[in-house]
Design goal:
Elements lengths: L2 H14 L3 H7 L8 H5 L7 H9 L4 H6 L9 H52 L1
Length: 127
């Protein structure tokens, strides 16, 4: 398995299952099942393993090419994709709220400066 493919497999496993070992457990394989594939550029998965990976949510096209969605159209893949999408949407909302809050802070700070300047002018007039 080439380095790029190994990196994509790790990325999928970490995002979807937490680790390669957990993905292996999900496939009912030993914890170190992927080790020989990841470390050997001349070793590739057989049809049965590819099918199990697809069913576990991995898009085989993405694994090979890096293009498209990481998630397959299997039941688990669609579920993982939905969960990931919800997390991204939450992150987007958090970022938008942070930007809005920072803008409001800047406006309040400007207004306070204006008020302080007016108070200073009033004090000079009163003296």
């Amino acid at each position: 398995m080439q380095e790029e493919e190994s990196n994509r497999l790790r990325e999928f496993a970490e995002i979807s299952y937490g680790s390669l070992a957990e993905l292996a457990r999900h496939l009912k394989k030993t914890n170190n099942f992927f080790s020989s594939y990841v470390s050997n550029p001349n070793k590739y998965f057989g049809w049965r393993v590819l099918k199990k990976l697809y069913e576990a949510g991995l898009n085989i096209d993405w694994l090979i090419s890096g293009y498209g969605s990481m998630f397959s159209n299997s039941k688990i893949g669609l579920k993982l994709q939905k969960e990931r999408s919800q997390l991204i949407n939450q992150d987007d909302l958090s970022l938008k709220l942070k930007i809005e809050l920072d803008t409001l802070k800047d406006k309040v700070s400007f207004e306070l400066t204006q008020i302080e300047e007016l108070i200073s002018k009033i004090k000079k007039i009163i003296k």
